[in-house]
Amino acid sequence: MGMESYQQGIKGEETAEKYLVQQGFEILERNFHSQQGEVDIVARDKDFLVFIEVKNYSFRSLGSPLSAVRKNKRESIIHAARTYLLKKGIKKTNCRFDVLTIYRGMDGSRRIEHFKNAFFCD
Q1: Are 27 and 40 in contact (CB under 8 A)?
Q2: How far apart are the first and last CA of the chain?
């Protein structure tokens, strides 16, 4: 990943965090890593612990950001989520996996889409 892509990712996560807070989420952690994966944002939404993947796309990008969360990516997020629960000693809580996409237009505008329950654990 180049520096420009990295910076774009950081800005996307900052935008996502601001959006989520405005929606009433409590941000617990950003960029939680396990040996086999990462969760961009861990947050609380009422009775749910939410593991959120952020996809930040420019007008030049092709395809749907949601479709970029393929099986391998979902598995790595699930692994990181399980590790988070284990490390924090969290049991018996409602969890879900969301995907938040940010589209940047040529004019600098941003459109955010939030997909709750975007995928599930097997």
Answers
A1: no
A2: 30
Distance CA 8, CA 11 (A): 5
List pLDDT tens digits, range 87-103.
Answer: 999 999 999 999 999 88
What the block records as the tokens of 9 is 């990712």
Structure tokens at 69: 């969360």
Is pTM beyond 0.90 here? Answer: no
Q: CA–CA separation, 12 vs 114, rounded Å? A: 13
**Residues 54-100: tens digit of each pLDDT:** 988 765 555 665 667 888 999 999 999 999 999 999 999 999 999 99
Supply φ then ψ for residue 71, to 5 degrees.
Answer: -55, -50
CB 55, CB 67: distance < 8 Å: no
CATH at residue 21: 3.40.1350.10
Residues 6+ apart with CB under 8 A from 4: none
Q: Please tell me the total count of domains within the chain.
A: 1
**What letter would DSSP give residue 1?**
-
Would you give the DSSP letter of residue 46? T
